[in-house]
Structures are given as C-alpha cells and as structure tokens.
Amino acid sequence: MSWTPRQWITTVLTVIVVGWCAWWWQGHMEYGWHRVDKAMDAQFHEPMRAAAALLQQQGRQVIQENNLTVALAKQRQASMIILANREGEITKEDGAALLEWVSGGGVLVIEAMTSTDKHRASDPVTQATQVVSEYFAKHVPANGAKGYTVVPPGTDHPLKLASKNWYLHRVVSSPALAWSDDDQTQWMVLPYGDGHIMLTPLNRFNNYELYQQDHAELLVDLLDYLPKQGSVCIVRGLASLPWYELLWARVPYGLCALFVFIALMLWSAMVRFGPLLPESSTTRRALMEHIDASARWLWLTSKGREALLRAVRTAVRSRLGRRRPELLRLGPAELAHRLAAERSLPIRLVDEALNQSAATRHFDFVRQIKTLQELRKHHER
Fold this sequence. Notes:
This protein is an alpha/beta fold. It has helices at residues 5-28, 41-45, 49-57, 68-74, 92-103, 124-129, 215-222, 243-250, 252-269, 282-300, 302-323, 332-343, 347-354, 362-378; strands at residues 62-65, 80-83, 107-111, 131-135, 148-150, 159-161, 166-170, 179-180, 188-192, 195-200, 232-235.
C-alpha cells in the first residue's frame, strides 16, 4: 500500500514532535549531571590563593601580608614581592624602602598606576619607571586584536597573554626595557639597580587571571630571576593600617619591652595575698631597732668592736668559772691549747677568739664571735 503525500507529511511531523518532547523530557525532567560554576569563599578572601599554591609547588616559600608597610618591615629578606592590589597610595616612606629593596636585587611585580589616578604624580614607582596604564578607548595597539606574546629570557617558547582593555604606556623612553611583550603594552620589565620592576596593566596572577592563556607558566618562569632558596612575598593591598598595627610593625621589640616593664610595675605595686601576719609589738620593735642601731654603731668603731668581743669573752670566762674553774688558772696560750684540743678546733682560731684583738674584717670578726659562742655552749652541759 502506498502512502499519500499528506500521510508522509503527517508522519514526519509526528516523529519530530515526539522526538522534541522526548528530548525536552530528558533534559528537564530526568536526573542528570550538570556543571555549575561556583566560586569558593577563599577565592574572594584570598585572591592570590592559586598563585601561592603554584609557587609552593615549585619549592618556594610564600609569605602573604595584608599591607605593604608590614611586608617591608618583616619580609625584607624576600627575593620577590607581588603587589596583588594597586588600589590606594604608596607613602613616601614605603616607596623609598621599596625602591631601596629593589635596587638591592629584589624583583617587584606590580600593576602600573592609571594615568587618571590622583596619586600618580606622587607615586614613587611611577616616578621611577615613568610607565602608566591607559584604557583602550584612548589608544588601540596595532596587534590588539590577535593577542599578545612574550618570550621570557632563557626560554625559546613564546607565552600568550590574554587581551585586556588596558595597556601600558611609557611617558618617556628611558630607562631602557630589559624585556617585554611583542607590543610593549601588556608586560614590561625595567632594570632598577641590581633588581627589576615588572609592570602589567592588570594583575595577571590572581585567581581569575592565572588560568587564562599562559599566565601560570609566566609566573613560573619569573622564578628564574630569584636565587634557588629565594622566597616570595605576596602583598594583598595598600590599605592603611590602624595606628596600633603600624606601631607594632615598626617597633615590636620596643613595645614588648614596654609591656614587660608595665607588668613588672603592676606586679610590684599590687597587694600580696596570703595568711594574715600578727601585728608586731611596737615596744619590742623599738627595742630591736635600738639593739640593731647600737650594734651597728659599735661595729663602725674600733673600740666598739673590742667592747663586743670583750663582752662575749667575759661570758665565756664566767661560764668556765662556774663549770670548770681549774681552767681559769692556766695561762692564755695554754688555755687556748686546752680548749682547742677538747673541741677538736684549730688552735689558731681559738687563740684569735680568746687572746687576739678584734678583727677589722667582717668575716674574721664573725668567726671570732662564732668560736666563742661554740665554747660557751659546750660548757653549758
């Protein structure tokens, strides 16, 4: 049986409608896997997270600081500084310290300041490089439509750079470029002292730009400028610090010394805690102070020392007279020899205590008194 043209048309339209309905059902009503682009929170809070991980994979130590002032104060031993965010102003002090660091052999990767920025005239990096960034509406590079390539020194393969709406513009032709991209509008490297300043119109190494074209490979090739153990410091921005953070960044050791001094002052002035002590008797205290003052005065005079020594000798002889009166009939030398033998003491010490004059040195005088006290206590039994 042959179909009429109407039947053929009806059949074809029916197949198309049924096929479209099946396709729509499969795409909207059936479960399936679909890619959903979603940025992590860390991507917003740490815009250089991917670059830091890439540098660490290359065996480099990466330090991240929130402010340029802190980075210059703490990380002056770093071999490369990458300024991730150009918004803000570099102060004269930070600019001078930064350029001094670069001239000593450091590598600075930084965005060029726009020509319309109000801080351009006072920016230290702009004054040193004489390079600004312009919008494409003012000037379109000759090869802007086909992209840009750059060949880092020491390599033979060109790297592609993503086309941007901003380009680098040199205000003056000096100083000479060390190397740049083929159009000299997207990447410039200028020598400065023993170091280099690498300029780009926009940050090509943040989380959004690193995966584009050959930006990641360019970042790795920049490590050839650093020593083998050179570290990289990533500065997140130029936001001004509160006065207390700035003070801590400038003089941390001075603040630590001040805190320790204040803590010791408070510790010495605070109330001591513990059991209550009994109140001392004012009469007894006055007596002890009188005895202490009298003894101090006697010690300071030669006759006073003799009086103190004579009082102790009299007490010893009085005790010997009551306990062993036969010893008092012996001569001075024989008495000293007899007492030394009984107490197993050196004869010289006993003779100095009993027969010699009062010693002038504090140690010798105390030894005389101590020897006499020992003889007196021995004969108390």
